[in-house]
Amino acid sequence: MLRHSASSGADGETKDADRPLTREGRALAKSVATRVDDAGWTPDLTLCSNSRRSKETLEIMRDEVNEAFGTKGRVMYLGSLYHYASLDGVMRQHLSECVVKQTTAGDGADGEEGDVVECEIVTDARTIMAVGHNKGMEEAASEYCGRDVRLQVATAALLERARGEGDTWASAMADAGSWTLVAVATPEGIIQI
Questions:
Q1: Signal peptide span per the entry (predicted)?
Q2: What is the pLDDT of residue 107?
């Protein structure tokens, strides 16, 4: 779970979804990319909000660590991750549905309005990164692991779940509260939990 990096404030002329990263935000994205890459948190599939600040965060991270984040065909930009982030109590369920759809053969990537659907179905995904916004990202991470998770800008939380025999992404994502918060990556370093 990754919260986008620092972006410009609302100026009355720019739509919220179109706000770019600041100079500081670009530097923070580079730093957190290095921390996450050094820790080996390379995703097999990335689900990213289609807001400008989320896309820029992912692009900067990819450029910083030689495309480790965002392998072609394994990134999906979703307008819904932007919209659902502001709604109370729905982000975890929506994110779970997105993960299942993108990891289950035959389901296809239909997408919703505002989605950029060029992502293949990734049935072999073991690590998935979600890039988005608060309050939804914190809320979803907290629900998955059953404890309070705080995500400042350019901060990632690594959640793990033991894999049982016959486990699928559908069963894993439906099993809220069974995930473990392992560590948090900030631009300054990794905090083991």
A1: none
A2: 46
Residue 123 near residue 115 (C-beta atoms within 8 A): no
Distances in Å between the Cα of 166 and the Cα atoms of 30, 81, 100 are 38, 29, 15
Percent of the chain with pLDDT over 90: 72
Burial 126-148 (b: 16+ CB within 10 A, else e): eebbbbbbbebbbbbbbbbbeee
CATH of the domain at 44: 3.40.50.1240
User: Phi and psi at residue 33, in whole multiples of 5°?
Assistant: -60, -45
Whole-Å CA distances, 179 to 4, 122, 128, 171: 22, 21, 14, 12
| Structural domain for 46, as ranges | 2-192
